[in-house]
Amino acid sequence: MPKFQLGDQAPDFTAVTAEGESFHFYDHLKTDDRFHLLVFFRGEWCPVCNEQLQDLEKHKETFRELNTHILAISTDETANLAKMKQSSTLSFPVLSDKDQEVIKAYGVYYHDDTYYDDHGSHGEPAVFLVDPQKRILYLSVQTGPFGRPSAEDLRKTIKYIQKTLR
Prior knowledge:
The chain has helices spanning 25-31, 47-58, 60-65, 78-87, 101-106, 151-164, and strands spanning 14-17, 22-24, 35-40, 68-74, 94-96, 110-111, 122-123, 126-130, 136-141. By secondary structure, the protein is of the alpha+beta class. It has one domain: 3-Layer(aba) Sandwich (Glutaredoxin), CATH 3.40.30.10. The strands form 2 sheets. Strands 2-1-5-4-3-8-9 form a 7-stranded mixed sheet. A two-stranded antiparallel sheet has the order 6-7. Strand 1 (14-17) and strand 2 form a beta hairpin. The longest helix has 14 residues, at 151-164. It is globular. The two termini are 28 Å apart. GO terms for molecular function: peroxidase activity. Keywords: Antioxidant, Disulfide bond, Oxidoreductase, Peroxidase, Redox-active center. Residues 4-163 form the Thioredoxin domain. It comes from Fictibacillus marinisediminis.
C-alpha cells in the first residue's frame, strides 16, 4: 500500500462513472482547476456511506465556495452506484473502481473477509484532498465504516489549508 506524505503527487486513475462513462482523473484536472475531494466509500449497501455522501451533497454549496469538487469512488458495481446516485440525488460524480486499481494506487484498505465477515469484499472509507497542482494536502484512511470526517470537518480543514497554503 502506498504511503503518502503531504505534498506528494496524487496518482492518476481511470474509473467508470455511475452512468457507465470512462473518467480519467488527470484529463479531468486539465479542464477543472479546483481542489478535488476524493471520497472513497464502501458501497451502495452501506448506510454509513450513504449518510456521508448525503451530508456532502447537502453542503455542496459550501464546497463550491471553497473551490472544491467532490468525486466519490467505490469498488461497488456500476449499476448499484447508479441506483444509489439517483435515489440520493447526488450531483457529484460517483465512480466505480471494480478492479480495485484506484484504491490500490491510493493505499485505501480493502476488506476481503479474511478476518471477519462484513458484507463481502469492498474498499474501506478514505478521503484525499488534491490541489490544482495534483498535490495531496489532506488524507484520512479508515479500516472500517466509522470515524470518517464529516462535511463540516472537511469544510474546516479545506478552509484552513487554503488559508495557509504556500
